[in-house]
Amino acid sequence: MRRIRVAFGAGPGQQIHACQRIGVSDVTSTDGSTTDSARGGTKRPEQFPLQLGLDYNPGMLTARFCFLIVAIAIAGFVNLGCAPSEAPPNPSPPATPTSAATGADGGATSRTAEKGRHNLTNEVFERTDITTLKLEILPAERAKLVENAREYVHCRLWERDGQTWHDVAVKLKGAAGSFRDLDDKPAFTLNMEKFHKKQSFNGLQKFHLNNSVQDETYMHEWLCAELFRIAGVAVPRVAHARVYLNDRDLGLYVLKEGFDPKFISRHFAADDGNLYDGGFCQDIDVDLERDAGNGVADFSDLHALCGACLVSEPEHRWRQIADRLDVDAFLTFAAMELMTCHWDGYCQSKNNYRLYFDAASHRAVFLPHGMDQMFGDPGASILERPGAIVASAVMQNPVWREQFRDRIRQLLPLFNPPDKLLRRVDRLEQRIRPILAEIDPQQAGGFAERVDELKERLVARAENLKEQSGQPDPPPPQPLDFSGNQGVELSDWQPANESEDAVVEVVQLPDGRTAYLIRCGSGGQCIASWRRTVLLSHGAYRLAVSAATTDVTPLTDEKGAGAGVRISGSSREAGLEGTADWQSMEYRFVVTEDAQEVTLVAELRATAGQVQFDAQSMRLFRQAVE
Fold this sequence. Notes:
The protein is α+β, with helices and mostly antiparallel strands. 25% of the residues lie in helices and 28% in strands. The chain has helices spanning 48-52, 63-75, 121-125, 139-147, 220-230, 261-267, 300-309, 314-324, 327-339, 346-349, 389-395, 398-411, 419-439, 441-469, and strands at residues 5-7, 16-20, 25-29, 131-135, 153-158, 164-173, 187-191, 206-210, 238-245, 248-257, 275-277, 289-292, 353-357, 364-368, 488-489, 494-497, 503-508, 514-519, 526-554, 562-567, 578-614, 619-623. Strands 1-5-6-7-8-10-9-4 form an 8-stranded mixed sheet. The N and C termini lie far apart (77 Å).
């Protein structure tokens, strides 16, 4: 086994089978290892017909032709089970399907400059063994990481019997379910360039070591990354590593490529657009963290996309969305999220995603993330209308909705029959089980059981997807019913947090009532909220909430100050600050469409303090239109 060693502390300074398809290239490893199918990124849509040898008029590209391309592309998936003795053909770049639905050129264009050039990152993701990494951290650096797990500290990285790198940056990672501290099984992010420019680890600028505490098979990220890549979606590559921290064996980890400029340049011809991190349960109506890009840093691209989705007049809304979103690429992204049961992704939970604004087309492309809890419910619906802002707006367009249904049918062979996926699972199991047995024989026994359960779910999901793909589209949801004059009590509000250290949780009050709490952290800025999306008919409305504040120091921006309520995409005037006992707050607005989804917001914009919203008081009233 080839071993790699990583040391922390300040320092002085398979054979591969390329499954070729028209428009989508997937290079898969015959032994189950992660492969590189993204050397060239996504290809310009006008290149697809040339590969077929057909006459082509850019202005006459149709959605049916796009679907035909995807169908041909998926045929390549059968090669996932090809024998190791087969010689690898030359791979072609993967592609994002064209934006035929929008009547415009596709936004996710490819970068082909590296085609035919040796790519060092292939060594990480195409190797046939499992890498061993050793992390050693000096007491001073460890103390910094314990004090603030989200801040990078200096480290040293070397490959055993190989090159040494100095001044590498490392920090802990993970959200509510996966974060572990240094004394447990922490997950890590390593950044090679933060403290030392122009250095990389085998071509990687940034990569993650995920602890997989929510996936005992260690396979979900790998399997779903392969599926998304075959479907034409830009997605980070995945491998595995055994990790040591000082002299402590932390066990098996998932090694995952980071979303960084090198990732973007490999997938998009114009690689200087803005890349946003979706954060924790945040939709595009908040100012997301910008991870990369040379575009304007005023969030104008993000605001324009959100504004387009909220335009009242439908036809105008469709045109605005088509100008700002690669709709066809989004249909594939949404279909794959739902088909893989990504309940914690963008469409269903407004979570675990990245958003890239292609500098060439100025259209947004969604990228999947956090795929460690997949295929959990084999019967999960692919037909229910998702609630995320972009997903909801796109699915309201009848033409795009029908194209989404067609896309589901075109992608179905990736899942049904499930034989190819099951063989991939078997190969991964053969690679992983010996490492786990060496680490902990008892864990290896449990691993075998978890793998069997995963295979059962894959078989069940395959049959369920086939059944759902043939079902008629369910009737559209009906607007909220307002009978009587008591209004509608709104439950199941969801958290959204733009500030990493803010506390957003449900609490019980001393008198037994339930409240939605937002408390500022020590970072000096808190922008966090509770949100509830409702479908409303034409009319005037009043959102009423009872709230109490403690020591709130307001933070003022264009959306408001202190504690208050509003709807997404709007601003408010009044807000609570300081310390105030329970008092009523309200926000009035008008819906101009026959039916429109509106996201209600109860928020805190402050530098200190907390607010509590009485859960039973959160009601929406329909007003008589004067």
